[in-house]
Amino acid sequence: MAERHRLSEQRTTRFGSLLRHWRTLRRMSQLDVALGADISQRHLSFLESGRARPSRGMVLRISEVLDVPLRHRNELLASVGLAAVYADLPLTSTELDPAREALERILRHHEPYPAMVVDGAWNIVMKNCASTRIIGACVAEDDLQRLGSGGYVNFIRLMFDPAGMRPHVRSWDVTATYLVGRLRREYSSDPESPAAVLLREVLPVAPPHFVPAATALPLPPTAPLELDIAGRPLRLFNTLTTFGTPQDVSLQGVRVEMSFPMDAESEALLEELDRHAETRARAD
What we know:
There is one protein chain. The protein is elongated. Strand 1 and strand 2 form a beta hairpin. It has helices spanning 2-25, 30-37, 41-49, 56-65, 70-78, 97-109, 129-138, 141-147, 155-160, 172-189, 195-202, 249-253, 264-283; strands at residues 115-118, 123-127, 148-149, 152-154, 223-229, 232-242, 255-261. Helix 2 packs across helix 3 (41-49) and helix 2 packs across helix 4. It is α+β, with helices and mostly antiparallel strands and 284 residues long. The protein folds into 2 domains: 2-78, lambda repressor-like DNA-binding domains (434 Repressor (Amino-terminal Domain)); 94-283, Beta-Lactamase (2-Layer Sandwich), CATH 3.30.450.180. It has a 7-stranded antiparallel sheet with strand order 3-4-2-1-7-6-5.
């Protein structure tokens, strides 16, 4: 009985430490969190100090107020001996068939414009034919294999590697600044995210004047990207789409990166590449 009570106290203390960590990271006062979770500041103080043990519903309410990533919400639940609520399934699992089919439909309907799906670690897990053609026109197959791991190519490494897309990006100053800004924003939201590792890799190779300040987190809604495709300019602007209310850890990190032509010349080039691919496919 005494041992069970000791373990319960340890779990509650662990929860309090995690709660304080996320509240501090979000720069919210106890009063801010208490008002959002519809509890008293005194009760929240008791939760942080380990003098009170939260229910499952309380953990989830506070997690919502603090915008805690789903993976860490499971960690908060585990810290007080409660089972995880959010599944963490690979995108290839049958349970996620509806989500995967929706993503495939989005990619297919975006042809002949490039679009891809990246996961929370920035791995390219799905892409349409237009993306495959553009990457293939810039990066040799051997280099693609070198940049890949576990069957996936990492988008950030693909963009920053000297043997990847980087030599073909005419808008490198703008593009590098935008990508570093996104990584820093993800790191600011969750210091344990894969963005931490990627930042350590790319910051030494990103020219200092391309690197935004750590506090410069607001980013434009779209990002311009100009590529050199066999000596011809391809000007695109990119948009980002995420699942609105994901209930799976993996789905929360999934983003659809969609590109659109910025001018008639770029649109004509994309259509030309598409026609050439169809002609080669018929010939084969």
